[in-house]
């Protein structure tokens, strides 16, 4: 599959980030814990330059717990910080607030010494589409402040949100980069829902996902879909899943589209199990 998606508003978002960077103290980069490398925009380093950064691995409840620990160690080693969170349930949110205050402690003390007391810490939220930025903000604020959804591209413009008397957040739309040189990255972004399903061949996408899962999480596939033999090949497994779920259309043919949508949906919602698509020792 040749997967590319870079709608016009993303180029505008890139300019927005650069124009507002001087207004913030910290950049909070939200990644998907299931695919931290693929969900990391390679243009971000250049865009934010030397601005302080906090790396947040969201949706950690959907990814492999063992590999989560490896990723946290990876980001703590390479970027001095890396926090695992589950925005839906609020796990890890308190740790983020404490980390922000710790990162800014020296600067705030310096400003207070200069007579600038009670200056709020300003943070910019960045990340690719559908990594859960809006859900994260709603959880950290404690109320519904921004629109959320399970489709990429919900946030269209910037907005400031106050967390408390100490911290303010600047939300920005999700931003990808113009070209995926590695199509494995495109596949993973398709699997986690960071690219609009409407522009993808979902049957191919689900077929590639099922191949990955049978090779790396075979026990989960066996348990979820009651498959006894994984050595028969992806197509036969795909067919067996369709039959077991009763996805049959007129004429007795298997409904591949419905089967594909179901596999992708169940992976994204964690119904198949806790799955990581990448691991640090293979980056």
TrEMBL record:
Q: Does the keyword Nucleotide-binding apply?
A: yes
Task: Determine if Isomerase is one of this entry's keywords.
Answer: no
Q: Which GO terms describe its biological process?
A: translation
Query: What biological function has been recorded for the protein in this entry?
Result: Required for a late step of 50S ribosomal subunit assembly. Has GTPase activity.
Domain CP-type G: where? 13-178
Q: SUPFAM superfamilies under this entry?
A: P-loop containing nucleoside triphosphate hydrolases
Q: What is its main location?
A: cytoplasm
- Where does it reside? Cytoplasm
One GO cellular-component annotation of the UniProt record comes to:
cytoplasm
* Protein's name according to its UniProt entry: Ribosome biogenesis GTPase A
Write down the NCBIfam families for this protein, in alphabetical order. Answer: GTPase_YlqF
Which species does the entry assign this protein to? Answer: Garciella nitratireducens DSM 15102
Similarity comment: family membership? Belongs to the TRAFAC class YlqF/YawG GTPase family. MTG1 subfamily.
Q: Which UniProt keywords apply?
A: Cytoplasm, GTP-binding, Nucleotide-binding
Binding residues for GTP: 58-61, 86-87, 130-135, 174
| Pfam families (alphabetical) | MMR_HSR1
PANTHER family in alphabetical order: MITOCHONDRIAL RIBOSOME-ASSOCIATED GTPASE 1
